[in-house]
Design brief:
The complex is a heterotrimer of chains A (169), B (673) and C (315).
Chain A: H1 2-11, E1 45-51, H2 57-65, E2 77-79, E3 88-92, E4 95-96, H3 100-109, E5 115-119, H4 120-125, E6 135-137, E7 147-149, H5 156-167
Parallel strand pairs in A: 1-2, 1-3, 3-5, 5-7
Antiparallel strand pairs in A: 4-6
Helix pairs in contact in A: 2-5
Chain B: H1 3-24, H2 27-53, E1 58-62, E2 71-75, H3 77-100, H4 108-123, H5 130-148, H6 156-185, H7 192-198, H8 204-222, H9 231-237, H10 240-265, H11 271-294, H12 298-325, H13 329-364, H14 375-378, H15 380-393, H16 400-414, H17 420-453, H18 460-463, H19 470-488, H20 494-505, E3 511-513, E4 518-520, E5 526-527, H21 529-550, E6 558-560, H22 578-581, H23 583-588, E7 596-603, E8 611-619, H24 623-644, H25 651-672
Antiparallel strand pairs in B: 1-2, 3-4, 4-5, 7-8
Chain C: H1 3-34, H2 44-53, E1 58-60, H3 65-84, H4 100-120, H5 124-155, H6 160-169, H7 177-194, H8 221-246, H9 257-283, H10 293-313
Classes of the chains: A alpha/beta (169), B mainly alpha (673), C mainly alpha (315).
């Protein structure tokens, strides 16, 4: 226990200083047919992550985004265990055929007002897996997407910036 | 002729007439008449009991009725409590039985014996001589046995349960008989007045022997371990109105017997009596509720819960005796008052619980919690009734048993400073035992109510369940009203109970009440159950109003699909069952509750590598039965086999026995002359 | 029914309700600082609650009135205990129910309501959470009641006001072996009852490791807000009881505004201190396996028994 305490003291703060807050509107690259303006959640957004067939590259970047270095929690975003507790769905991966129904059910389980964020090129347009036999299509084929985060995988800073447009902090 | 005497005689007459009606009336109206008659008997008994508690004496002497001693009945305040409780239970069960009898219980034997059973239970606390007590006790045992066996044609387990019950209750009778005879041999005659006079003069050895013998007999009737084995067998197999009567009225008489003999007739005793009682009571409480917690049969669960509650009553009685033996008379009165109040509250909620269980059994034909569930849509009133009973049974506010457990805990807690080293060791353990029991009761009744009545039905019978007829609902309503009354306004009966307890231990009234608060005399402690319920209600309404005011999206509470992790519709098979609910607890208490598993694998004929069916059976047996009863029964069977060798069927051998025993006796006479 | 009593009740309710989410926020902030993160700020739980109240309420198909009423029962029990227990003042309007057994039983009632709601959903997780939570409650009861026993012996009563007043009159009694042993036993009890590490992880996402969270997986919107507020309030209530039963200095004994202000400030400081210590401790601990929890609770039970034995020997 003492060694852990010494490590805490010597490590200190790991989180990088916060970059300037992005404007709370849709960033470039957002879906053209999404809702007009994203709902403001007053600084608190709970997020449920759904993996619909991803290679886990985006998951690693999301994990980094919520880790100590980028610390997305300081802007009010928090990962939760159940879609009933969530405001936003963070969807990664192209939607495989077996995940179409679960993704739809997860979307229906989230109470209004809700937001869907498609993370990574696979979620936006199937990425490198486009045309494969096991894929049903991008996320926008299954549920309406409000925000897209491009990249394969997207950098943690991009993910954090997109989440900040949701929380407004 | 005062109210007490009049009530007792009315109860006698109404009970007898109801039994007669049960024999004579034709089938369509038999159950109704007997039910109303039983309820009337109950009302008269309540009146008699309450009047007796208020101090009105009632004496009935019938010296010619029995050879040697005759019958003698005296209703004093202590007996009055138990008569009143029995009467109240009989009222609710009588009305309930009208509708319940529709399920094959309209036969003459059942309907005629039921009022006799109630009558015998009313007469036992009024008995004032050894012969009268034993006669009424045996009448109670026989009538209850006949009632337990009511459905033996439909289910074979009933016969086995009846056998266990018959043997154990009669062994108990024999032990009580021996104890009381030893006592009466040391007194002028068999009447309680004579025994009371002789009590202080009897030698400690004889007093101890009498206490232990009668304690064994009465304790077995109350369901105290290790002589409880009849209870979880007889209560499930009996019809539910009989189970309610047995659990809520009959087992109390075991506690009555112990109090009567230990406190009243023997006049108190040394500390080891009461320590023994306390220890057995605490052990019964924990063991009973543990087995209830892992039991999946609804009525067996309730039966084990009766063992638990009677254990708590005996903890109170034992603590009372311990305090009285060391001179703390106010605390003794408090502990006795707590025990008596617990008898009353237990009667109220156990009646309600058994009535609801009977309602479920009648509607679905199932007793196993793993097959029930989802009953709240089809049987809302029964669900509400069971919920009320479960709240009371788990000793949570605002339930009925919370007040009696609070009183018991106060008595145990305040006993520490005064009563010496033995109390210093015993009181914390007793408090811990009561606390563990309360916690396990929470698990048990959350399981029983939640798994049995909420969520989705686990079998087609449960899905098709419909509410019970009006008479059953009325009976449940009466018991429920009693539970609610005891929960909110125990201050109505507490002064009377306190006075009775004070009379038993010889102290001042240990409880003082004003309109809504219970205060303890001589020690610091007060509680207001009504105020607590009121505060909870106000807080609930305030929270609801605040939530409605603050929440902006007042719009839709949509009829959404359950969150099933997206995997597909949830079937009833995916719900938690009663076995799985209790599994963590079973693992924690694995030393006491070790499970036995049987796995039978049937292979495909052609190849031993392929499996056709697997049969899996898991059960948690009663450890005391395994360790105590089965060796005893095996030994008896062994002796029986050995004994059979003495009777091979040869007439020469039998004649030889007679000849040799005659010779031996003659030789003995010559030698001792 | 004095003005002092009424004022005490109102102030305590306001303080406990307002400060409960701030305590949760403070504890999360301390954990974040020790883990090298920046953290969301102390006010984040209040932002979460505000947002949740604006969400759509959901009543899933197949649930009943039990599911709908359980959050209200949970918070009602917390409100009654917050009003009755002596946090800011010693004399509460609800003194006839300020009995330690009654308070403990009320808090258990809240847990039972939530457990029934978990079973009512008909999902496997709800049943699992209910099963585990009630098992832990059952095993915690003996320790809790024996610790109450130990506390009440020197005072001669289980009335909360009496125990607090006795503590004020004999300030040195906090250092007696009885108090220390009972305090340690109660700390373990509080950790188990409020679902903190090492008994339960309140921020886990793995359903098979959940105890409390599993029962509330189905709740959304305002119902979830009520449950989260009630959970924070339970923590404040338990920490406040721990603080004031053992170290009641600073509590207001009469109705003067200065004393009440001091009482509020001291109560807030005590709860913040205890919460901070709990948060720091949680950083160093991992969650125990469910079947190791009874060993922990048995150890605390032995401490409670020792406390009672000490109270007898030293009486």
């Amino acid at each position: 226990m003492l060694s852990l305490w010494r490590k805490i003291r010597s490590t200190g703060r790991v989180a990088e200083p916060a970059p300037p807050a992005p404007a709370p509107t849709r960033p470039t690259g957002a879906a053209a047919d999404g809702p007009a303006a994203l709902p403001m959640f007053g600084g608190s957004v709970q997020i449920r992550h759904v993996d619909t067939g991803s290679c886990s590259g985006c998951e690693i970047e999301i994990g980094a985004a919520f880790g100590p270095v980028y610390d997305a929690e300081r802007y009010g975003a928090r990962l939760v265990a159940s879609p009933r507790h969530a405001d936003a769905l963070l969807v990664t991966g192209p939607v495989t055929r077996n995940m179409v129904a679960p993704l739809r059910r997860t979307y229906e389980a989230v109470p209004e007002p809700k937001v869907v964020v498609a993370v990574g090129d696979c979620a936006r347009n199937c990425g490198v897996f486009g045309g494969a036999y096991g894929i049903a299509g991008p996320v926008s084929n299954v549920v309406p997407v409000d925000l897209e985060i491009p990249g394969c995988p997207p950098r943690p800073e991009t993910i954090v910036a997109a989440l900040r447009t949701l929380t407004g902090r | 002729m005062n109210v007490a005497l009049g009530g007792l005689l009315t109860a006698l007459v109404t009970g007898g007439l109801s039994a007669l009606a049960g024999l004579l009336f034709p089938t369509p109206r038999r159950a109704t008449v007997v039910g109303i008659g039983t309820a009337a008997t109950g009302v008269a008994a309540v009146a008699a009991g309450v009047a007796a508690m208020a101090g009105q004496p009632a004496v009935v002497a019938l010296p010619q009725l029995l050879p040697l001693a005759g019958l003698l009945f005296t209703l004093d305040p202590l007996g009055g409590v138990f008569v009143a409780v029995t009467g109240a239970v009989a009222v609710a069960v009588g009305i309930y039985g009208i509708g319940y009898a529709r399920h094959g219980l309209r036969g003459r034997s059942f309907q005629a014996v039921l009022p006799l059973f109630v009558l015998s239970m009313v007469l036992v606390p009024a008995a004032a001589s050894v012969g009268t007590l034993l006669l009424c006790w045996e009448l109670m045992a026989l009538t209850s046995l006949l009632l337990v066996l009511a459905e033996h044609r439909r289910r074979p387990q009933v016969a086995s349960a009846g056998r266990w019950y018959a043997v154990m209750t009669h062994l108990g009778l024999v032990v009580i008989l021996i104890g009381l005879l030893v006592f009466a041999a040391n007194a002028a005659d068999g009447s309680f007045a004579a025994l009371r006079a002789a009590g202080p003069t009897v030698s400690p050895l004889v007093a101890g022997l009498v206490f232990v013998l009668t304690g064994i007999g009465f304790g077995s009737k109350a369901g105290i371990i290790p002589l409880h084995a009849w209870l979880p067998r007889a209560h499930p197999e009996a019809p539910s109105n009989v189970s309610a009567l047995m659990s809520a009225a009959m087992v109390n008489l075991g506690a009555y017997g112990i109090v009567r003999i230990g406190f009243d007739l023997l006049g108190g005793g040394p500390g080891w009596w009461w320590l023994l009682l306390l220890g057995l009571g605490a052990a019964s409480a924990i063991y009973g509720i543990l087995l209830a917690a892992i039991s999946t049969d609804l009525k067996r669960l309730l039966g084990y819960s009766t063992t638990e509650n009677m254990g708590l009553v005996l903890v109170g009685v034992g603590a009372s005796g311990l305090f009285a033996a060391s001179g703390e008379s106010t605390l003794a009165g408090l502990a006795m008052a707590a025990a008596l109040l617990h008898v009353i509250t237990h009667a109220a909620f156990k009646t309600l619980l058994f009535q609801s269980a009977g309602s479920v059994l009648a509607a679905t034909g199932r007793r196993d919690l793993d097959d029930l569930g989802g009953l709240r849509t089809g049987m809302p009133f029964t669900t509400a009734a069971f919920g009320l009973g479960a709240l009371a049974a788990s000793a949570l506010p605002p339930g009925a048993a919370f007040v009696s457990e609070w009183l018991l805990l106060q008595a145990l807690i305040h006993g520490l400073p005064a009563s010496g080293l033995s109390a210093a060791i015993v009181m914390p353990l007793a408090v811990a035992a009561v606390a563990l029991t309360a916690g396990l009761a929470v698990v048990t009744f959350v399981k029983a109510f939640g798994i049995g009545f909420l969520a989705k039905p686990r079998s087609p019978e449960a899905a098709a369940a419909r509410e019970s007829p009006a008479s059953m609902l009325t009976g449940m309503g009466l018991a429920g009203a009693a539970c609610v009354g005891l929960a909110l306004l125990p201050t109505v009966i507490l002064p009377g109970i306190g006075a009775v307890a004070a009379g038993v231990v010889g102290s001042g009234n240990p409880v003082v009440v004003d309109a809504v608060t219970i205060r303890l005399a001589d020690v610091a402690g007060s509680l207001s159950p009504l105020l607590l319920a009121l505060a909870l209600t106000v807080a609930l309404v305030a929270a609801l109003a605040a939530a409605r005011a603050v929440a902006t999206r007042r719009a839709t509470a949509i009829d959404a699909r359950l969150w099933d992790c997206g995997g597909g519709p949830l079937s009833a098979r995916m719900e938690y069952t009663a076995t799985s609910f209790a599994e963590p607890l079973q693992r924690v208490f694995d030393d006491v509750l070790s499970a036995e598993q049987d796995v039978d694998v049937t292979h495909v004929e052609e190849s031993r590598y392929l499996v056709q069916t697997i049969d899996y059976r898991r059960r948690v047996p009663d450890r005391i039965e395994r360790r105590l009863y089965q060796p005893v029964l095996a030994a008896l069977a062994g002796w029986g086999r050995v004994g059979r060798r003495l009777a091979p069927g040869s007439v020469h051998r039998y004649l030889g026995y007679g000849f040799y025993s005659l010779c031996a006796m003659l030789i003995l006479l010559v030698v001792t002359r | 029914m004095t003005v002092f009593g009424v004022v005490g009740v109102v102030i305590q309710l306001v303080i406990v309700v307002a400060l409960a989410p701030l305590l949760t926020g403070m504890m999360r902030q301390i954990r974040a600082a020790m883990e090298g993160r920046a953290g969301a700020g102390i006010g984040q739980p209040w932002r979460d609650l505000r947002k949740l109240m604006r969400k759509q309420p959901i009543h899933p198909r197949g649930t009943s009135v039990v599911f709908r009423v359980a959050p209200l029962v949970l918070i009602a029990t917390c409100l009654v205990v917050a009003a009755a227990a002596p946090f800011v003042t010693t004399a509460s309007l609800l003194d006839p129910i300020a009995d330690l057994f009654a308070v403990v039983a009320l808090l258990t009632l809240g847990t039972v309501a939530l457990a029934l709601a978990g079973i009512d959903t008909g999902t496997a997780f709800g049943g699992m959470g209910a099963s585990r939570e009630t098992t832990i409650v059952a095993l915690v009861e003996p320790t809790l009641l024996v610790a109450i026993f130990a506390l009440s012996v020197p005072v001669g009563s289980t009335n909360l006001g009496a125990i607090v007043t006795a503590g004020l009159e004999h300030p040195a009694s906090v250092f007696s072996p009885v108090s220390l042993l009972a305090a340690v036993a109660l700390v373990v009890v509080i950790i188990a009852e409020t679902g903190r590490l090492p008994v339960d992880n309140p921020s886990t996402h793995l359903e098979l490791t959940m105890v409390h969270e599993a029962m509330v997986l189905e709740y959304a919107g305002p119902d979830l807000a009520i449950i989260e507020l009630a959970s924070s309030m339970r923590l404040v209530v338990f920490l406040g009881l721990l603080a004031n039963l053992f170290v009641p200095w600073g509590i207001a004994t009469s109705g003067q505004p200065v004393l009440i202000a001091v009482g509020v400030a001291v109560f807030v400081a005590k709860v913040a201190l205890l919460g901070g210590a709990l948060a720091v401790g949680e950083v160093f601990m991992a969650k125990l396996r469910l079947f190791r929890v009874p060993e922990l609770l048995a150890g605390s039970f032995v401490l409670g028994l020792l406390a009672v034995a000490a109270s007898f020997v030293l009486a």
